[in-house]
Amino acid sequence: MESALHSRCNRAASCRLESFLLGLPRAQVALAWMLGKPFITSPIVGATKPHHLADAVAALALRLTPAEVASLEEPYEPHPVLGFS
């Protein structure tokens, strides 16, 4: 079960994402964001329909501006990792 804070951050990020998608699928924007991060070496793409794969391939050509990346990342609030001592 997600916390109220986590839920609020997810909604805020989703609203920001929707504001500049320009009709692009969210998965495509999410993959483009991930591809712009040098520390992520391999995405896990669970394509169950042909358009899922098309979105993943199209993300390779999508370049988010620094302002778009900042807008996506702004609502995130780090939280501690649980379950490890």
Question: How does this structure look, described?
Answer:
There is one protein chain. The protein contains 4 helices and no strands. Helix 2 (26-35) packs parallel to helix 3 (50-59). It has one domain. 53% of the residues lie in helices and 0% in strands. It has 85 residues and is mainly alpha-helical.
Task: Give a short overview.
The protein has helices spanning 4-20, 26-35, 50-59, 66-73. The protein is an all-alpha fold.
How much is the radius of gyration in Å? 14 Å
- Mean model confidence by pLDDT: 78
Question: What overall geometry do the principal axes of the alpha carbons give?
Answer: globular
User: How many DSSP H or I helices?
Assistant: 4
Helix content: 40-55%
Cα distance spanning the termini: 22 Å
Write a concise keyword list for the protein shown above.
globular, 0% strand, 85 residues
SSE arrangement:
Elements: H1 4-20, H2 26-35, H3 50-59, H4 66-73
